[in-house]
Amino acid sequence: MNPLVSIVIPAFNNEDHIRETLRSVTAQTYENVEIIIADHSSTDGTAAAIDEFSADPRVRVLSPTPRGGGAPANWNRVTQEARGEYVKLVCGDDLLRPDCVAAQVEAAVAYPGCVMVAARRDIVDDAGEVVLGSRGLAGMRGVISAGVAVRETVRSGTNPFGEPACVLVRRHALLERGWDDTHSYMLDVASYMHVLDHGDVFCMEASLASFRVSAGQWSVRLMRSQATEAKRLYSELAASRPTDVSRGDVLRGSVLAHLNALARRAFYMKLKVRSPRAESAQGGTA
């Protein structure tokens, strides 16, 4: 019998955290899962750490993903190997609550018109301490129509649905276009917008995952690139969904994208003072 859920893990230079990530994934209370892992030719001990979990019958470790292609190359590779009806991508330093998959599957089955189930998440630092609790979804709860979800995404100037560990997606909706490599700095949210071409989203009140942040993730170039890509994505969405996204929504979102980037800069600078040695990656080489 094929698994209902594929948990796919693109790893890259995650030696310090991949064991904790994999323990959180293998400890899920929901049992009908497969776990697919690909290391993106890491230069640290990530591959050896992954191998410690290879005896688990649910785990399938792929050969190393060749260097290059950035995060989209490894994200798409593990996703294309998925056999489940639903896919959850977990980066190599993020965490799932033990009941995360069970709760999201329950919602997905209860609301078959939804192609995506999103939960809130905690933001944790390099040591795993919560720095911001129960974040995300911009006030959206329950079944949210695709049009409203897209409009709220644009108007928020950020990614209200959070990182992929927060989200369960129907595989067919994701695989039609895969992870969007044309928006490398907004890889997840741009891809969610394509998924929403196929149905609605269910938004959960509970915080079911943890996203790890570190001072090493921030740079002036990253901040500017994210804001620029946000504006481009919003304009594309207004063109493709004119009944859902107005020019005013694009203007509002573009301004907020810049302000959110400045807020992230302040947050990461504060984090750097707390943990000056912290660094992290999102599962792909440049």
UniProtKB/TrEMBL annotation:
Keywords from the named record: Transferase
InterPro entries per UniProt: Glyco_trans_2-like, Nucleotide-diphossugar_trans
GO MF term set: hexosyltransferase activity
Transmembrane segments: none
Domain Glycosyltransferase 2-like positions: 6-142
Domain of life: Bacteria
Pfam assignment, any one: Glycos_transf_2
Protein name: Glycosyltransferase family 2 protein
Species for this entry: Arthrobacter cheniae
